[in-house]
Known about the structure:
Strand order of the largest sheet: 1-2
Distance between the termini: 17 Å
Order of helices and strands: HHHEEEEHHH
Structural class: mainly alpha
Number of strands: 4
Largest sheet: 2 strands, antiparallel
Strand content: 5-15%
Helix content: over 70%
Radius of gyration: 39 Å
Amino acid sequence: MSFRIGSNIPAITAQRYLAKADDRNAHALAALASGKRIVRAGDDAAGFAISEILRGQGRSLKQAQNNAQGAISLIQVAEGGLNEQNNILIRLRELGMQAASDTVGDEEREFLDVEFQQLVQEFDRIANTTMFGKKKLLTGTNEKFDFHLGVTSEPVDVITYELDADTTSSTMGIDGLSIEDQSSARDVLGSVDEAIMAVSRNRANFGAIQSRLQIASSNVDLQYENVESARSRIADADIAYETSEMIQSQITKDFGIAVLAQANADAGKALKLLY
């Protein structure tokens, strides 16, 4: 058996293993605290790069979800205005039918016409005040809307919609109508029927684009779910694994400290040879 005091090789070896255990323990603690498997880019350079690309794609898809919901809201605002206009047209037709019958006289027709004119004004007001932000939706602006629902700048990720709905009273052909006399009341029925058909056509158009946007939104939701799932598998920490790593490294550290103390004690035994 030999003793050397110039170099304590067992202590150096114990320190090396102790440093490794300490590094493992620190990494496990950082992973548990952050919830990330890749605490530093050096832990998995390729995985880190891929996860960051997926993270950027996921954030873009999240914004695409918001864009889709905003587009649907715009269409719903417009369709809501059309719904009220349709209700007005049905009431106008009802008033016209009432005024066209001899069950009421000319004086009563004048009373009915007062409501008729007020409803026509409200019809026109709805068309001019139905807005999304500062954009008028029912005055025939023919404005083109680009709804960006993808993660690239390619045209395939953009849904373009031209808003050409014009439901002002003059365009619908009900401006200037009256039911003050029986003949005018009967003429009103045809004009109101045409207006109802025009409003229904616009509602069908809005319904079609809304259906498309809802499908596009569902597709974006699915993409976001899958991208986040892929990113999570690469970047997120496995808590069970990191916990076991922490416990194992802590035990290894404790043993390393004990071994290092023993190695230092063994070197001191060389002093006994002098006595």
